[in-house]
Amino acid sequence: MRSSKQTYARGHRAKGKQQDNSKEFEKYYSGIYGDRWPSLREALIRPTVHSAVANGFIPSASAAACTTAGLTPLLSVGPLHAYRRTQSSGPYPSPPLDPASALRAWYWMDLASVLPVLLLQPRRGDVVLDMCAAPGGKSSLAAQWLFGPNQQQQQQQQGPAVAAVGAVVGAGAAASSAGAGAEAGPAREALAAGAAVASEEGAAERIPATAEAASTSASAAAPCCSSSSGQEEAAATPPPASPLPLPLPLPLAPGKLVCNEADRVRLQRLHRVLEEYLPVAARAHVEVLNYRGQLYWARNQAARYDAVLVDAPCSSDRHVLQQAVAGAGGGGAGGKGQMAAADWSLEGCKRIADEQLQLCLAALRCLRPGGRLVYSTCSISPLQND
């Protein structure tokens, strides 16, 4: 059984049709893209350039391993750190194992493949579904956003509670430093009733928290009859109370990642990738399933997920072209780069598009109110990207 995602999707084709489909392929895409098609075809034929996406669960070790391998930084977004090779040709070095964690240092990916995860924006505490997860690169990256040790990312994603606390504290500090006096009363009341601030004249004002405190403040502000009485009143006045500490929000639960793959051969690779790139503590929050998305999820998992990624099986036209060129250059089965019906057919594209629509409809039903769905393919066919 073939195990690539594009082959799995291209199983939908007309029975008994075994002639060369290269002419149909060329006619279809030249009709869509017109004069642009020759240059676009040339770009698709070029070898795919992969980037090393560092393992965010071992940031220091992965960065050191990338430097040792001669990789240079390419992109950094949140917990995502991607590197590239300095040489443009030759074999890609195998990702080494970190001896301390027994995890792979990086994962080779087409850099465009990280965009769906960045658009999905999984946040700590979310329940996320990767409906077509194999081979596992996007799943491992989503797990880094959900369960990774990057404290800055977690702080940014702890929701409006932290932002509200920061706004209140910032407003109180700004009012104190600016000497706004009583005009900044609401901000100081939010910090603590009766907090002392410096007025424009430099005198200490006390914000009355109660009627008794107000009368005390008024008597303290009145003119003194003599120095002795002023000393007695000053001695009777209690020192300013320190602001009460604000309660910090409890840390969010790590959430959950559900990885689904319908093809059993690809499912084995998904398991292997998760074991090699995720620590045990993170894998405890990951569930791997083997269902056909359009048949199972809409009926049994409705309104359960904060985010759903549908990296849908597709015709993978780039792979079709590259395999055709490889067959032509290496004397393969095609001999002249011919494309068999198993690789591509227009009827197969139409059937795949119908399956993708069913996947999207099922994913929409899985979402909770306010959730996010990201759909992506590796096809340039409008049928599969409508």
How is this structure best described in words?
Residues 255-386 form the SAM-dependent MTase RsmB/NOP-type domain. InterPro entries: MeTrfase_RsmB-F_NOP2_dom (IPR001678), RCMT (IPR023267), SAM-dependent_MTases_sf (IPR029063). The chain has 386 residues and is α/β, with parallel strands linked by helices. Helix content is 43%, strand content 15%. The chain is built from 16 helices and eleven strands. It has helices spanning 5-9, 22-33, 37-45, 59-68, 115-120, 137-147, 151-156, 159-178, 185-191, 211-221, 227-236, 264-277, 280-283, 293-300, 317-329, 346-366; strands at residues 50-54, 72-77, 80-84, 106-110, 127-130, 196-198, 204-206, 256-260, 286-289, 305-311, 367-376. α14 packs parallel to α16 (346-366).
Structural class: alpha/beta
Rg, Cα atoms, Å = 31 Å
Termini separation comes to: 30 Å
How many helices? The count is 16
Give average pLDDT, whole number. 75
- Element-by-element helix/strand order: HHHEHEEEHEHHHHEEHHEHHEHEHHE
Helical content, roughly? 40-55%
Shape: globular
Q: In what order do the strands lie side by side in the largest sheet?
A: 9-8-5-10-11
Spans of at least 5 consecutive residues with low confidence: 6-17, 151-155, 157-229, 330-338
Query: What is the number of beta strands?
Result: 11
Largest sheet: 5 strands, parallel
Range of strand content:
5-15%
Family: Belongs to the class I-like SAM-binding methyltransferase superfamily. RsmB/NOP family.
Region (Disordered): 1-21, 221-242
Organism: Astrephomene gubernaculifera
GO molecular function, one term: RNA binding
